[in-house]
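Quick one, T. Sequence first:
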Amino acid sequence: MAKKDTPKEVVRLVDYSKNLDTAILQVEKDGIKLKHKIHNVALSIITAWGKGMIKDQEPADYFNKLASAAGYHGKALANWLEVFTTSGLSKDNVKLPMAFSEETDKWYVLPEGKVNSIQFTVARDNPFFEVSPPADPKPSNYAGLLYGLLNKNSKASKEDVIKKKAEKGVTDTLIPADVARKIREVLAQAGISEAE
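Structure tokens:
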């Protein structure tokens, strides 16, 4: 879903430094409550849709609002909806009769789209946070990647390696030695060592 221009939120500073363990535990509990609430709202949309309380494009409008309101969970919810609408969430391939429009960047209900207790049960048993779990945090090590590239380039620049590859008909585009040396100098001047 496209990023919308929203006013910057004002964050009230609360100092938790005297009891960090308790604060972190509370964040974990609040995170669990939030993802459960998001899932329950999604189930409520399906329930209201199945009972005829919301019709036409209203279910999709509510899912669009929920995905937007869900913040960081919005992507996982959108992934869940994508699986639920395209391949299905269960071994029986039970699907939700909706699709995503690339043009409008929103979900819409398919013509004659109806739901029943089967979709509800499948949605209930396959929460969005299990279908699309968050990725593990992995900090980027760009300096390490750059040094790895320079080291690989250095090995590939050796005469015997070039000859072996030429015999096989392989030619690599190499960073000229003077450019590679200058990159290493700039990194060293910036205090970025290869071990970082």
